[in-house]
Amino acid sequence: MTDQKNIAVMHSKNLNSEKAKGTIGKVLAKIATYAFLIFMAIIVIFPFYWMIISSLKTYDEYILSTPTFWPTQKVYWKNYVDAYSAANLGLLFLNTVYVGLVSTLLSLVITVLSAFAFARLEFKGRDSMFAFMLATMMIPGELFTITNYQTVANLGWKNTFTALIVPFLVSIFYIYLLKQNFMQIGTVMNILAKQ
Length: 195
What we know:
With 195 residues, the chain is mainly alpha-helical. The protein is built from eight helices and no strands. The longest helix has 54 residues, at 2-55. It is flat. The mean pLDDT is 87.
């Protein structure tokens, strides 16, 4: 009887020690995981920190051969005022908002109408036209730079918002995704109609 008690005690001690080892292993794994995540977060955040700190330094401190991690002379907030007034950032921001809104709205209309036509309408040459459009996705966008510039220059659109909006209105990738979505909706509607 005492042997069985001794075995049971030893077995429970082994189980407790194994549980303790498992708990310690889990804690060490969590510590290593969080240490790695913190290290990677510092690597990702550091360029933003450096950009902001550099913008608050005087020019003399900025061009020092030995960089400083905090402005040693003084925090120079006037750099932001100078940058805002020198570059006319208010007007540039409004231009960006205008181009972004107009191009997004026009692109949305073109993409939705094109995708719907390819997904739901039957017309001659639809599949071959869509295949040709998909084939253009294999051409790198950089190859269109010169032809886009020549087109914009020939149409007299240089230095206009039109040159920033029109050449980038059509996205074959978005048309493809939306076409697939419309086709799925059509399939679901057909299944529901049969029930």
